[in-house]
Amino acid sequence: MNIQTPVRLSAAEEALVSQLESTGATDAAERLRVIGLPTRRVESYHYTDLKTLLSAVPPLARQGAGAGAPAIDIPGAYRIVIANGEVQNTGTAPNGVIVSKVAGATLTTRDDVLVRLNAALVPESVSIELAGDVETVVHIDRRMEGEAAHVHSGAKIAFAPGSKATVIETVSGSDAGHMGNAGSYVSVGENAEVTHILVDLSASQATHFASLEYRLSAGAKFKSVVINAGADLARAQIFAEFTGEGAHGDFYGLNLVNDGQHKDITLDVTHGVAHTTSTELYKQIARGRGKAVFQGRINVAQDAQKTDAKMMMQGLMLSDEAEILTKPELEIFADDVVCGHGATCGDLDESWLFYLMSRGISRTDAETMLIRAFLEEVVEAVGEEHVIEALGGVVEGWLGKAG
Amino acid sequence: MKYGAASGPETKMTTPLLEIRNLHVRVEDNEILKGVNLTIDRGQVHAIMGRNGSGKSTLSYVLAGKEDYEVTEGEVLLDGENLLEMEPDERAAAGVFLAFQYPIEIPGVATLTFLKAAMNAQRKARGEGELSTPEFMKAIKDASGLLDIKQDMLRRPLNVGFSGGEKKRAEILQMALLQPKLAILDETDSGLDIDALKVVSEGVNRLRSDDRAMLVITHYQRLLNHIVPDVVHVFSNGRVVETGGKELALELEAKGYADFDESHAA
Ligand SMILES: Nc1ncnc2c1ncn2[C@@H]1O[C@H](COP(=O)(O)OP(=O)(O)OP(=O)(O)O)[C@@H](O)[C@H]1O
Ligand SMILES: [Mg+2]
Questions:
Q1: Measured in angstroms, how far is the CA atom of residue B158 from the centroid of ligand 1?
Q2: Distance of CA A280 to the CA centre of its chain
Q3: Range of the domain at B107
Q4: Percent of chain B with pLDDT over 90
Q5: CATH assignment of the domain containing B88
Q6: Is residue B7, in this structure, part of any structural domain at all?
Q7: Alpha carbons A384 and A381: distance in angstroms, whole number
Q8: Residues A12, A14, A17, CA angle at the centre, nearest 5°?
Q9: Per the domain annotation, does B11 fall within a domain?
Q10: Among the atoms of ligand 1, which is closest to the Cα of residue B58?
């Protein structure tokens, strides 16, 4: 059995193969032709069977698209637009920030179809270096514009040692069935204090994939927030690696899932060296027949003694048909560590609703108050006031959508 | 019905504020309330005393509209309207307020946000516009000052980490802000220190008026020295077994419940 029979390709797979071939990415094309898109039999895609979920792939994005108004406007932020993968004119960068373009993608090679597609199909990436105390929030505004398109974009964000900065990335664009594939490589220098945020706000007909790679150096204090609030089918993959002692990371995320949507956050944190600590808090909320998926994996290397990692998933189901799935995994090779995970899932607490209603608050308003309370913990973890306000707006926007 | 509608000295209307007639209530498979009869007129304060587990809180929850209770018989009229058909928020709009025996902690909901939502919901029900922030803050400052409640407590999530006594005070603060027609106080005195009991009782007494009524559930005669009731009911095994004036509370304190159990139920 050493000859692999090529799988029968679906229409989406055929389209992806020919897109890869058209750009000369023959190896990636061949690999996809042989193994196809991941199905539920592939562990990391168990709950997000791309072969079934991806029915069509729009044509590769053409460049030269104009970008509309930003999906969220953060007062005082320095904004860099990437429209249909093309890094646009960026204006004068604030003090401590250097922006340039680099050819091709930025993610490290990894055995993952979305990463391979990103590596092969990103035309150019933005490169941002941040040093010192950068008070201006940097906003990477990724856009999928015009007719439905398959859009690949990349960013390389390097926080210098000792820097302090907040970078928020948003994905949004025209009201069309786009398919996005965004990659970010984020390195956090020694003792830097950094927040990185990614918010998917793409159209509800769209599909969006994101892969984030974090490298955390010694003494770094890092916060990551990932919010899926847009695309019908979304998957955000977070690959974080602690590479220096004394680093701490807080990882947060929200899956805001409407009826019929499927949203996935897949987290893979590696404590590669001793004395690093992390917390992970992911919240998922689903309406109608929405499906929310969180997979969280924490790896502790053999030398990574004194690792302390606590992972938590909280789910809130707003209907009987909603599905919230969670798979925590700990893989620990060191013996002197503290690692834990927990998960809670349920619907709105009736006794809380009753208490609020007994004070005259209508059921709808009481529900909204409780959902907002559930989600706010993650939004408020961000720290930066204007960003909290903007993300609060994202949550309100989701709350305002009809169930 | 010695102390019923006719006894209210200043009764102006013929309809009592609250009328509970032969109320039977089940929880799961247990009948908890077994034919409660109780009539309260405007301007009156009624006290209910009774053993643990006799159904006092159940009665208060049924009046406030908590789910999970099945009314199998009887009716409850507020101002002549069928209370049992209303949702909890509609009952609040109609003037019912329950000070919970165990106020609920709700993480993530700021107390002030909640108070504002409650006050505005009530204004909306009356067809009034929303309170401005300065109006709201003034109302809070005045009411919490009278109840000796610190402002920073109100900035915390609703009831979360409040001490037992602080929770009870916060309930009375809500009552003072919402100015209900019918206030049901379920063991508001439990958990209060001596000074707090005075402050809270004064808060309750300030609300006494000709067009309001109160139903005060307590185990201790002591509270009734501060909030002097017009009528005292003894509750036993899911119903009212004895009704009298305020001296009934003293009698209970002296004799205990044994004399009032079942056999006295007429
Ligand atoms: N949800 C429920 N399921 C089953 N039994 C219940 C439920 N709620 C109340 N009961 C029972 O009903 C009875 C009356 O309870 P209730 O809380 O009304 O008593 P109470 O008079 O307020 O007592 P206390 O003085 O201790 O506050 C108790 O035996 C209690 O166990
Ligand atoms: Mg009770």
A1: 25
A2: 14
A3: 18-263
A4: 83
A5: 3.40.50.300
A6: no
A7: 9
A8: 110
A9: no
A10: 18
| A355 vs B: CB within 8 A | yes
Q: Count structural domains, chain B.
A: 1
Report the separation in Å between the CA atom of B27 and the middle of ligand 1, taken as the mean of its atom positions: 9
B63 in any annotated domain: yes
Torsion of CA B218, B233, B88, B179, to 10 degrees: -70
Percent of chain A with pLDDT over 90: 91
What type of residue sits at position A103?
A
Query: Tell me: the pLDDT tens digits for A53-93?
Result: 999 999 999 877 777 788 899 999 999 999 999 999 777 89
- Residue B128 three-state SS: coil
Nearest to A358 among B64, B125, B157 (CB): B64
pTM of the model: 0.89
User: What's the pLDDT tens digit per position in A360-377?
Assistant: 999 999 999 999 999 999
Q: Which of A312, A248, A234 is nearest to A276 (CA)?
A: A248
ipTM: 0.93
Candidates B67, B93, B100; nearest CB to A360: B93
Handedness of CA B245, B251, B253, B256 (dihedral sign): negative
Which tens digit of pLDDT belongs to each residue from B81-105? 999 999 999 999 999 999 999 999 9
- Least Cα distance to A382 among A185, A182, A194 occurs for A194
On the CB side of A71, how many CA atoms lie within 13 Å of its CA?
Answer: 28
Which residue from B27, B102, B186 has its CB within 8 A of the most atoms of ligand 1, so it is best to mutate? Answer: B27
Give A3-33 pLDDT, tens digit per residue: 555 568 999 999 999 999 999 999 999 999 9
Ligand 1 midpoint to CA B54 (Å)? 7
Over residues A374-394, the pLDDT tens digits come to: 999 999 898 889 999 999 999
pLDDT at res. B262: 58
Which residues of chain B make contact with A356, given a CB cutoff of 8 A? Answer: 106, 109, 114, 117-118
Answer yes or no: is B232 within a domain.
Answer: yes
Parallel, antiparallel or unpaired: strands B239-244 and A323-332:
unpaired
Q: Is there a contact between B26 and B4 (Cβ–Cβ < 8 Å)?
A: no
Mean pLDDT, rounded, for A329-354: 95
| Domain locations in chain A as residue ranges | 74-348, 349-403
